From TrEMBL:
It holds the Pfam family RCC1. Signal peptide: none annotated. RCC repeats lie at residues 1-48. The lineage of its organism: Eukaryota, Metazoa, Ecdysozoa, Arthropoda, Chelicerata. SUPFAM superfamilies: RCC1/BLIP-II. It comes from the Eukaryota. This is Regulator of chromosome condensation. The gene is AVEN_247834_1.
Length: 77
């Protein structure tokens, strides 16, 4: 719940705010071992050592620009 300005919640419509928590259906079945959140992004590391980002990426990631907006499908490592 909170601001979803850049899609950082992983669900709902980017640009809108949400007042209640929701499950992220795209993560169904994914075993998450770590999560990090900032004002405009979310990062997770899975048990399989995969890294995913959504929202406004905080740093350049591989061939992505610093201001790139990632979506839930953006596996970055």
């Amino acid at each position: 719940m909170g601001s979803n300005r850049f899609g950082q919640l992983g669900w709902g419509k980017p640009g809108l705010d949400y007042n209640s928590p929701q499950k992220i259906e795209k993560l169904k079945g994914v075993k998450v071992s770590q999560i990090a959140c900032g004002d405009c992004f979310t990062l997770i590391v899975t048990h399989d050592k995969e890294l995913y980002c959504w929202g406004k990426c905080p740093v350049p990631l591989m061939d992505k620009e610093e201001t790139n907006i990632c979506d839930m499908r953006s596996q970055i490592a």
